[in-house]
Design a protein that fits this description.
Two copies of one chain form a homodimer. Chain A is built from seven helices and two strands, in the order αααββαααα. By secondary structure, chain A is mainly alpha-helical. Chain A has a two-stranded antiparallel ribbon with strand order 1-2. Chain A binds a DNA duplex (30 and 30 nucleotides) through helix 3.
DNA sequence: AGTTAATTGGACAAAATTGTCCGATTTGAT
DNA sequence: ATCAAATCGGACAATTTTGTCCAATTAACT
């Protein structure tokens, strides 16, 4: 499964994106309360998202984090995960074999590979905007 | 993803099952070499599999681990994972939300839930025998 | 200028996972 | 009887992940 760090990253971005308005910024505290996460740890993750240029930050009083509309539209879920975990996500074999492939499959390859592939495609094709606007369907939750 | 411990467990069982013959036993060392894993850690995992009654062990000189034909046929991959990790596997939400469901979905639920469901079904329906006999298709590897 | 509210960066701490070591026990063989 | 080969159990160590704390910096406001 996804690391806690990536989960917090996605949730943070969903919260910030879903509530973004011009001139509005969110503090670490705002985010941590909204997504029910440990503030200091969340702070580190927001810093990583700034470093990855997904969000911007403003220091000082009245400062906080914000995201541009264009980033909401363009940021893919896979990019968020890779910003946190590096490039070594999800391409992995279920059994952890380093060169498992169609030609050289591990025993569960046939079962797992197609699902992994679908998930990768999903994470690649879905953006923050897709998630928060949810195609007009159900509302979603970010807490328990 | 799967824990290392579960990966070693599955690989160990695949090795033992694929090479099982009457009167043949495998030592920790045999298994660790075959699946390229740390011997002492592998030993602990084999102990867990004995406790879960998937394999049996014989102490002393000439001893080792073996698996019965009936266990090869009846042991589902999901049971192996649960023997190692406990019951809290795979039912989880992608974002880690404790009560994510159809009625109360997290933002990625629609994307992830069907895939998770398919994986669960796969792990539930596939046995050691299925994997090692591979429906006559390609051979498989357990090392790198 | 001073105060306050905020991010940033660094070091540190806790917890979980992964991995090691060794003595005790058991069994087979000489 | 002794020795060698094996599992078992417990304590321990290393690594990774998760989480905390605090001083430094920045910016707005009075």
């Amino acid at each position: 499964m996804l690391s806690k760090a990536s989960q917090y990253a996605i949730k943070s971005l969903l919260f910030i994106s879903a509530n973004q308005q011009v001139g509005v910024r969110f503090s670490v505290k705002d985010v941590a309360i909204a997504i029910d996460s440990p503030p200091a740890f969340t702070s580190k993750i927001l810093q990583q998202l700034v470093a990855a240029k997904i969000i911007t930050s403003v220091k000082g009083s009245g400062g906080g984090f914000e995201i541009s509309t264009s980033k909401i539209v363009s940021t893919k879920v896979i990019s968020i995960i890779k910003a946190i975990e590096g490039d070594h996500f999800s391409s992995g074999c279920f059994l952890g074999l380093p060169d498992c492939s169609e030609k050289n499959p591990c025993p569960v390859h046939k079962l797992y590979a197609p699902l992994r592939e679908k998930l990768n495609q999903g994470l690649y094709n879905v953006t923050l905007d897709d998630l928060i606007n949810n195609k007009g369907k159900q509302p979603f939750n970010l807490k328990g």
